Amino acid sequence: MIESLIQKLATQASIDIVIRVRPHAPKSQITSVLEDGSVKVDLAAPAEDNRANISLINVLAESFSVPASHIKILSGKTARMKLVRITSAQS
Questions:
Q1: What predicted TM-score, i.e. pTM, was given to this entire model?
Q2: CA–CA gap between residue 45 and residue 4 (Å, rounded)
């Protein structure tokens, strides 16, 4: 599902991804890559007190095998659509 993005990160220093989040989901997980290239992520955390953003960073860190400190939300911190930069662990 996100294998092409993982491979792209392996060959580049960083990648920017549009994320569509769904808070209050039963389970935190990446659900799909949509036709427009954005990544849909379900988050069990509510969208309050920055909990959903922290959960998103943790899901992405685990999925891309990078430390959470290598993931930054560039825009959309209070929106369902976010632009996220993931920096390679080798950088």
A1: 0.93
A2: 27
